[in-house]
Amino acid sequence: ARMTFTAQKCGICFQPPSIILIYRDNVQEKTRQRIMPIRNFSRFSDCVSAAEQLKNNPRHKPYLEGVSLHQLEKLHRLLRDHLEGQSLSDSLGRYHHEYTIDPEEDMNKLDDKELAQRKSIMDELFEKNRKRRDDPDFVYNVEVDFPQHEHLESCAWDTESEEEM
């Protein structure tokens, strides 16, 4: 079953509070815009449940199939921050800091909730970058030659002998 609608862009309008979706109608082969009002939302609202309610709303569900719950949650957070009086750049900066993986961060020191959040971010990034068989640039067996002239750093676990294992 082919999807009838393909989401292309998703954004937010602060006045009146609404999610704006630019999508492709695959049946009529036209690009269209859908405005979905965000009702009963305040600066005290839970962004996760609000995003879930919007995504599962029978009127909007077919259109939002290609939009991740994470993105809808982000748009609701931007709206909530706006209602609290924060600037868009401050809100985006804080969001970027919270939802970006720092490769130098020691995740062994995180509590369970923070670790679950980081794993969720990594899972979404993996899915976003994943190549599937039906992707136009899919290559079945990728072989990469790494440069041999550069100095390779060794790690302690690289040098252990088999007897130590």
Automatic annotation (TrEMBL):
Coarse class of the protein's main subcellular location? cytoplasm
User: What keywords appear on the UniProt entry?
Assistant: Cell projection, Cilium, Cilium biogenesis/degradation, Cytoplasm, Cytoskeleton
Question: Alphabetically, which GO biological process terms does the record hold?
Answer: microtubule anchoring at centrosome; vesicle targeting, trans-Golgi to periciliary membrane compartment
Its Gene Ontology cellular component terms are: centriole; centrosome; ciliary basal body; spindle pole
Q: Where in the cell is it found?
A: Cytoplasm, Cytoskeleton, Cilium basal body; Cytoplasm, Cytoskeleton, Microtubule organizing center, Centrosome, Centriole; Cytoplasm, Cytoskeleton, Spindle pole
Pfam families noted in UniProt: CEP19
Give the family this protein belongs to, as stated in its UniProt record: Belongs to the CEP19 family.
**Name the record gives this protein:** Centrosomal protein of 19 kDa
Which source organism does the UniProt entry give?
Melospiza melodia
Taxonomic lineage = Eukaryota, Metazoa, Chordata, Craniata, Vertebrata
